Amino acid sequence: MSNALEYAQDDYTVDQVKVYLSTGNWILIAVTNEKAEVVGALTVSFINFPNDRVAFVNTIGGKLISGQDTYNQLSNILKSFGATKVQGAARKSVARLWHRLGFKERYIIVEAKL
Fold first, then answer.
1. What CATH number does domain 2-99 carry, 2.40.10.350, 3.50.30.10, 3.40.630.30, 3.40.50.410?
2. Spatial contact of 86 and 55, defined as CB atoms under 8 Å apart
3. How many Å apart are CA 97 and CA 58, to the nearest integer?
4. Are 20 and 59 a contacting pair, CB within 8 Å?
5. What does DSSP assign to residue 55?
6. Quick one: which of 19, 57, 99, 113 could link to 88 by a disulfide (CB 3.0–4.6 Å)?
7. How far apart, in whole angstroms, are the C-alpha atoms of residue 87 and residue 47?
8. For the segment 31-85, what is each residue's pLDDT rounded down to a tens digit?
């Protein structure tokens, strides 16, 4: 999981992610290969809007986890939690990869520390 936090830019630590997972604020989805070996993982939180329940990908990491088949499986899992959309903050390289799976740029997130 620490590899998935490489680009978190101090948004949260591994220990903080563990707390969010243990309290049910986030869910953990593991990605396995044909040998049932874990090859990737992601954490997701849910945000309820008036017209949609959004599954927000907080962290993601691993190998061979961004293909169409894997995305279809992920979509089915998220739908089982009532999600109608999936979103995530992404670096440009990841955004290009996700674009191939049907994602569209909706926002540019900027921030300033207060």
1. 3.40.630.30
2. yes
3. 17
4. no
5. E
6. 57
7. 10
8. 888 899 999 889 999 999 999 999 999 988 887 677 888 889 999 999 999 999 9
Amino acid at 66: S
From the CB of residue 26, how many other CB atoms can be counted at a distance below 10 Å? Answer: 20
pTM of the model: 0.83
Give domain limits for the chain.
2-99
At residue 5, what is the residue type? Answer: L
Q: Report d(CA 74, CA 69) in Å as an integer.
A: 9
- The runs of H, that is alpha helices, within the chain are 14-22, 68-80, 92-99
Could you give the count of Cα atoms lying within 13 Å of 41 in the half-sphere of its Cβ?
A: 15
Residue identified by tokens 């969010």 is: 20
pLDDT digits (tens, 9 = 90+) for 4-42: 666 666 788 889 999 999 999 999 999 888 899 999 889
